[in-house]
């Protein structure tokens, strides 16, 4: 925690909100807006937090919680927490040690790290961290380039592929457009060459260079047949990220995927999209135990992780808080965020009468603005 304190925080942070406050003080304003902002009026981003804030858990008592474990297994990977680090582009915007530092922290914490396709560090170098790696893909107009990235991920030892399907085009992130946001010269898409690597640096001051770059690269014709092509192309577990309806979840299962990420992209795509936590129970009901379900969007504490588990998730993807920790203290800052989450979750499991992550699925939950409840009381 020494690095965290030296970055300007007079005392060690005690919550993700503390890390966010400290990060905002050190991240350049344009990069802060890129990392922390959402699309449109940021309605969905705010709704993600409200969904967690408005959900309450009914704890069980007299359960002998003298021994509590936060360990579990996600998409075939043994992990110390029901948490994986979400795919996020360009960690170098917040710290010069970039994705390599985040991956080393994930290794120390014992959680999977998802290497983003738009990473500023190539997957081969990230793999040197020794972390359990997953690799995230967007669907590219150049299918050969997509196939090449799959081969590189496999060769680097990645243990799963995660295809993000909710970006046929980038959502209108107004802060980035108003800022004329472009990547600085030392940050680029390291998995590509030439203009494909540096396109998001070519800002004109009018609009988002990142949005222009992704429009040029991403293929909006992505459809279910492409999922089946990718399924046949790799033996790695296949995760589809960006599902919000039971119909799409069922279709994804039929396409042979191994896990789904219920997600509205952290409120960064369709503004007005339903929070993932809200639809999680109906998606769990639709797919049963045939696939693993992960969820993301608005998770800021171990209590949020507990609520996600109680709503039907097998685990969560953690996004912005990781970048806040990276900005504040580099590798040790990310370690501190993950350690904080572990401490919170372990405490909350005990307080809710759960000795394991799996037992949290039996907790009843209540929405503050509704009379309905979810969960079972089968103990």
UniProtKB/TrEMBL annotation:
Residues 8-370 form the FMN hydroxy acid dehydrogenase domain. It comes from the Bacteria. GO terms for molecular function: oxidoreductase activity. Its EC number is 1.-.-.-. Its cofactor is FMN. Keywords: Flavoprotein, FMN, Oxidoreductase. This is Alpha-hydroxy acid oxidase. It comes from Streptomyces eurythermus.
């Amino acid at each position: 925690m020494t690095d965290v304190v030296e970055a300007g925080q007079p005392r060690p942070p005690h919550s993700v909100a503390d890390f966010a406050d400290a990060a905002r003080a050190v991240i350049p304003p344009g990069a802060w807006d890129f990392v922390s902002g959402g699309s449109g009026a940021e309605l969905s981003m705010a709704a993600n937090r409200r969904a967690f804030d408005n959900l309450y858990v009914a704890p069980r008592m007299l359960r002998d919680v003298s021994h509590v474990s936060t360990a579990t297994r996600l998409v075939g990977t043994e992990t110390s927490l029901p948490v994986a680090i979400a795919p996020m582009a360009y960690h170098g915007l917040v710290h010069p040690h970039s994705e390599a530092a985040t991956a080393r922290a994930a290794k120390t914490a014992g959680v999977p790290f998802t290497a983003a396709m738009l990473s500023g560090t190539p997957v081969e170098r990230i793999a040197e961290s020794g972390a359990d790696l997953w690799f995230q893909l967007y669907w590219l107009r150049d299918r050969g380039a997509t196939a090449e990235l799959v081969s590189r991920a496999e060769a680097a030892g990645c243990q799963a592929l995660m295809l993000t399907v909710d970006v046929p085009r980038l959502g209108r992130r107004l802060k980035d457009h108003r800022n004329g946001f472009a990547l600085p010269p030392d940050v680029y898409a390291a998995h590509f060459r030439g203009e494909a690597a540096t396109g998001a640096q070519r800002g004109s001051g009018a609009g988002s260079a990142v949005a222009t770059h992704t429009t040029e690269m991403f293929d909006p014709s992505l459809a279910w047949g492409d999922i089946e092509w990718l399924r046949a192309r790799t033996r790695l577990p296949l995760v589809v990220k960006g599902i919000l309806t039971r119909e799409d979840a069922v279709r994804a299962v039929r396409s042979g995927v191994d896990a789904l990420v219920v997600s509205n992209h952290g409120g960064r795509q369709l503004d007005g999209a339903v929070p993932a936590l809200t639809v999680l129970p109906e998606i769990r009901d639709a797919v049963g135990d045939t696939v693993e379900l992960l969820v993301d969007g608005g998770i800021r504490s171990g209590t949020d992780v507990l609520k996600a588990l109680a709503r039907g998730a097998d685990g969560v993807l953690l996004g912005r808080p990781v970048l806040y920790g990276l900005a504040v203290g580099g590798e040790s800052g990310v370690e501190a965020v993950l350690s904080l989450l572990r401490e919170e979750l372990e405490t909350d499991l005990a307080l809710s009468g759960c000795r394991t992550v799996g037992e949290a699925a039996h907790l009843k939950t209540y929405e503050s603005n509704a009379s309905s409840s979810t969960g079972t009381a089968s103990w």
